[in-house]
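Worked problem 6 (solution included).
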Amino acid sequence: MPYRTLAPGQTARIHVHDVEAGEDVVVHEDAEILFEAPNWSVDGRSLLVNGHGELWSLRPEAGSAPERIRFRGLPAINNDHVLDPAGGDVFLSADDGHIYRGPLSGGEVSRVTTEDGVWHFLHGVSPDGRTLAYVRMRSFDEPGLLAVVGSDGSGETVVDTGPGHIDGPEWSPDGRWIYFNTERWADRTGHAQLARVPSGGGETERLLESGTVDWFPHLSPDGRLAVYLEFPAGTVGHPADLPVTLVVVEVADWSTPLERIAVPGGQGTINVNSWARDSRRFAYVSYPNG
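Solution. The predicted structure is:
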């Protein structure tokens, strides 16, 4: 799976959005590297993004320049990477299908997953740092399944969420739920909707019934707000280079948007949770052309 690149005339803009002030700041714009999927560090000092198969760090303020984090023993990575809640390590999905763990300062990595011939697309880490949630796929011709595994590679389990492809699984801050998007209720191919399932197993709950294609529900650290990515009706999967909308809601009411942010994007915009610890800012990437 080769890394993504920018189209001629296209740029990658890394944004920080403040939901309280209503301010949106472009902290970096790049015409050479297609950056994706920001994480926000636990200490609030940096954003982590992938680009050209590697992980980069930059300050969350205007005029910042990404700096590459140099790992040893890490294959090219994709846009599925999340931070250990303790703050010192990052878990990364690589293009050999496996999940790796490495220090944010760079250096040697260790492989977490053991089964070859399976894609492990990482999206969540439990609040205690002991368990990872990922999308499990043997091929791209079959639906992705919700699976969890210990952060040490032990106890891999597939969670039953019903039929249909799922993506973007991540824990609620209190650890009680895993949130994700699913085609469980789809009456047409690709009609993903937002859902959650108890982290200990149980019935899948639909969060919102909409005519759009809704992906990647990300909860703020205080559990009060969420942002998700809304694709146009009829979209299949989460492709790049579409007019999409970031929708901010209160977790208590997914049907009433607090804010809608229209951007050119899709794949790479907000694949992983990018809320700051203050629960008022999140980061995302847009991809304007021209």
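Discussion: The first strand starts at residue 12 and ends at 18.
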